[in-house]
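All the exercises in this workshop are built on plain-text protein records. Sequence and backbone structure share a record, each on its own labelled line. The question running through the whole workshop is how a given chain folds. The record below serves as our worked example for the rest of this section.
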Amino acid sequence: MNTKKLKDQSNLWIIVFLLMIMAKPVFADPYCGEIDEALFGPFDYTDPTKKEQLKIVEAHHFDRNVENLTSGVSSAFIGGELNYTLTAFPNHHKALHTLSRLALRSKTSKPEGAKYSVLCFFDRAIRFKPNDAMVRVIFSNHLLKENKLNMAMEQLQVAADIEPNNPTTNYNLGLLYIRKKNYEKALLHAKKAYAQNFPLPGLKNKLVAAGKWKE
């Protein structure tokens, strides 16, 4: 059999396997629902060809009042507006961040009006588009605020794997490794961040203070 063909097939299976790992649900339970249950959508928030659909959804369910956690647009509950937005656009970055803030402010995992818990909405976003690095970053920030450091690191590491040269992601991941006292990995990500001219000196200062910084 053709050796090149076998090699190409092998590489294809490796890519498929990696995508399967990245798409692994945060929760395996079925209660997080199917992604295609939307009457309108689901659409990719990062797809520039879906701007008109995004404009419609945001006009009726995600205006500035919703984003500022002031009031709903078409629903009495902000959670209901975010529920609709994230059903139509599962990886809507601003809506995910707003839902996280709402849940933390309300001290609840499932804000009133939302069909699923916050963690479920992140699960759905990841299943919908596993290679969306920003979803992983927002999820990591949410987990950090819930004092789930290991889970937060896992999500931020995935974001760094997706965008290995993103200076902000590398900087923040370095800070998390500092908290775990894993200075070797903290230095690795610090070097990546500063190689991209990241302006904040905090990570370097912490490594210097720990005697772990190397030029």
Q: What stands out?
A: The chain has a mean pLDDT of 89. The longest helix spans residues 3-22.
